[in-house]
Design a protein that fits this description.
By secondary structure, the chain is an alpha+beta fold. The chain has 14 helices and 27 strands. Helices cover about 30% and strands about 20% of the residues. InterPro entries: 6-hairpin_glycosidase_sf, 6hp_glycosidase-like_sf, GH15-like, Trehalase-like_N.
Length: about 600
């Protein structure tokens, strides 16, 4: 049987990891130690890989929502005999508030069942499976606590309803009556370090999680267009932040396919410099940038000293470099889509666009990086040097092509961005001779892009030098200030890309891309806004906003024919695209209509 669609899941986070819970009350994904750790619930990728469900015994319908300004999920089940609610949260450290949330979370998942009306017979099925479903642990009960230990993983479950242990699973039944509450607390700890798992009171976990998330939300006031969508997206991105380091993972899952039955099934639980930098820019727009220096310091430490070798483009959440890919061949895969991958060999690639993305984010955050630490100064100087020296070389591009390297236009444009921002930084990061060298290289890049990127036959800037193939990544050109969206060739490019790569408001990256790629679709909306076509931008944004699931969550892509979400989930890139497009529409409306609700300082390439 196929576990529910990826968009059927809600997202819980604690600053270390994420759990995904479907609308039927089943936790189908949780990797307690950190985002990229082995799962203890992995039914998302195989029915036998572990889950924990709490649901009505008979037929039911369900509705769900997050408690306001939190990642605390409430699911209401309605049956023929009554109504009950299950509220789920990953625990934050008690008392943690604002930017402190997620740094020392206890790795606890709490679930509280409330009877709302009538009587609802409920069932609990608890089937942990360690090491991505490889290990079926022995379960034992001691004083009301069910323990499961195997290898380096230890779980303890406390419930105030009776559960019976069987072969690798526990189950039970109870009745939720109006006014009743039933509590479940599941804690994780490593077997040989750190003592027993924490098992705090479930009600207290929920209360701390609500207060903690709301304290974070209170620090981040966005007053532009689409406020609710932007605030939800900002919270989702914060939920994908690894609290101890400040690094932001690209997504919470691995191997959710870009095409059902396809083999482009990659592990996204790592930190891409591209995503990380765009995240900083999005949170600056939607929230507050108080942690800019901490996050840039993390990047500098993860990179180490940069020499002539390609800049590593991705890392583990604590800066690990080697992310070698391997196949979990014992798993059937999401909807039968194999391989199921852990690790991602893109860490070996040259992707020159990251140079510009990091320097662009630094320029945007420049006031918050003052005084600039020596580590960050050296990092930005080295990235500018790389852009000056490496821009002529082919690379794998931002879509991480696994074939031959090419001269991707978006990579060249982002090398220009790196050099442009380095020159703007001036003496803060370089000596006069450095600035002159960077400025000369910047001008060379620009001339090459204008000469070799434009294709008269296509009537647009294409995906690579001297190519006939369209690629939606060229839509970044006005967004980084390389060309204004009103430039005749840029305006023609936006029209051609939309006409030939778009369907039902969804934009594919290239002609044979199997589904619409959400961040590219938002780039199109942003480009239309920059070109002054505000009504078209708003119509497209509204179409894209309608593609979220019932909780306001996006995966990476959407099937243009069926509307089904595809790819890893939730996807930071998609939510970042929403935030950026909302900000640009807000700014365009202010320019065209004199409105004042504009994010402070928001200008492309400012």
């Amino acid at each position: 049987m196929r576990t529910g669609r990826i968009s059927d899941h809600g997202f819980l986070a604690d600053g270390h990891s994420a759990a995904l819970v479907d609308s039927a009350g089943s936790v189908n994904w949780w990797c307690p130690p950190r985002f990229d750790a082995p799962s203890v619930f992995g039914r998302l990728l195989d029915d036998t890989a572990g889950h924990w469900s709490i649901r009505p015994l008979g037929e039911f319908t369900s509705t769900r929502s997050y408690l306001d300004d939190t990642l605390v999920l409430r699911t209401v089940f309605t049956t023929a005999t009554g109504t009950a609610a299950v509220t789920d949260a990953l625990a934050l450290e008690p008392g943690a508030r604002g930017h402190e949330i997620g740094r020392r979370s206890p790795r606890v998942l709490a679930r509280v069942v409330e009877g709302l009306a009538g009587e609802v017979p409920m069932r609990v099925d608890y089937a942990p499976r360690f090491e991505y479903g490889r290990v079926n642990a022995y379960l034992s009960e001691d004083d009301g606590v069910i323990g499961a230990t195997a290898g380096g993983c230890r779980l303890e479950l406390r419930a105030n309803v009776p559960l019976t242990c069987g072969a690798g699973a526990a189950s039970g039944r109870f009745t939720a009556r109006a006014g009743s509450t039933h509590h479940f607390t599941l804690g994780y700890a490593p077997t040989y370090r750190g003592g027993a798992p924490a098992l705090p009171d479930a009600d207290q976990v929920l209360a701390d999680a609500v207060t903690g998330w709301r304290s974070w939300a209170d620090l981040h006031q966005y007053d532009g267009d689409y406020r609710d969508l932007v605030r939800r997206s900002a919270m989702v991105v914060q939920g994908m932040t690894y609290g101890p380091s400040g690094a932001v993972v690209a997504a919470a899952t691995t191997s959710i396919p870009e095409e059902l039955g396809g083999d482009r099934n990659y592990d996204y639980r790592y930190v891409w410099l591209r995503d990380f930098s765009l995240t900083l820019q999005a949170l600056w727009l939607a929230a507050c940038p108080d942690e800019a220096d901490r996050q840039f310091t993390w990047v500098a430490r993860a990179m180490g000293r940069i020499d002539d070798a390609p800049v590593p483009i991705m890392y583990g959440v604590e800066g690990e470099r080697d992310l070698t890919e391997h196949d979990l061949d014992h798993l059937a895969g999401y909807a039968g889509s194999r391989p199921v991958m852990v690790g991602n060999d893109a860490w070996r690639q040259r992707q020159s666009d990251v140079l510009g993305e990091v320097l662009d984010a630094a320029w945007l955050m420049r006031h918050y990086l003052d005084p600039m630490s020596a580590d960050v100064r050296q990092l930005l100087h080295a990235l500018a040097d790389q852009a000056a020296e490496q821009w002529r070389r082919p690379d794998a591009g931002m879509w991480e092509a696994r074939g031959a390297e090419r001269h991707y236009l978006s990579s060249k444009v982002q090398c220009w961005t790196a050099l442009d921002r380095a020159v703007r930084f001036g003496s803060r990061i370089g000596a006069p001779a450095d600035l002159a060298r960077w400025a000369a290289a910047r001008d060379e890049v620009r001339a090459a892009v204008l000469r070799r990127g434009w294709n008269d036959r296509v009537g647009a800037y294409t995906g690579a030098f001297d190519s006939d193939e369209l690629d939606a990544s060229v839509l970044i050109m006005p967004l980084v200030g390389f060309l204004p969206a009103s430039d005749p060739r840029m305006r023609a490019t936006i029209d051609v890309v939309e006409r030939r790569l778009s369907r039902n408001g969804l934009l594919r990256r290239w002609n044979d891309d199997p589904a619409g790629f959400l961040i590219c679709s938002f780039w199109l909306a942003a480009g239309l806004a920059e070109a002054g076509e505000l009504d078209r931008a708003r119509r497209l944004f509204a179409q894209l906003a309608g593609r979220v699931n019932d909780l306001g969550l996006y995966a990476e892509q959407v099937d243009e024919a069926t509307g089904e979400q595809l790819g890893n989930f939730p996807q930071a890139f998609s939510h970042i695209g929403l935030i950026d497009a909302a900000g640009r529409i807000t700014a365009a409306a202010a320019r065209l209509g004199g409105r004042s609700a504009v994010p402070s300082g928001f200008m492309p390439g400012a």
